[in-house]
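Model it.
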Amino acid sequence: MINHTVILLSFLFMLTPASAAFGSEDEGRGDLPAQQKALAERIEMLKHEQDFLLFQKTAFAADSKYLILSLGDGRGQFRYKNKILKDVRFKMRQRDAGRLKQGVVILSGKIESPPGRQALIFGKGLVLLIAGGRTAFTDVPVLFLGKRDFNSLFYALENGAQAYILP
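Modeled.
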């Protein structure tokens, strides 16, 4: 009786395709593009994180003041080495939301026109202004800060100072 059972089971096993017994090969392949996309996004996120950490390391070594701007929550930090000197809040124009890219920008100039019309210009990538003032900067993303926050940054930062933009 045991012989007949073994023969019957081996016969049934031979009739069953291997893919049905062990799972289809196509099951894993259907998820492959989604997995590749998730991995590519993860790699990109890690590259940005590495870039930010390298920025902090060089700013610490250079013994200079720098600015970190987080676009997601509208906050920034003015830092020296690893110490936070000032927390700032800012607002952004709606049209500028997608135009700012994550990374380093360098302060290239200050405009010292009449009070209330001053500006901090970070290359062609960013301008900081006092909130409530009119702006002639239409082709460059603009962040608006409160008067006290802006004045603190305006008089503390020098040309060549760096800022890092976080999403």
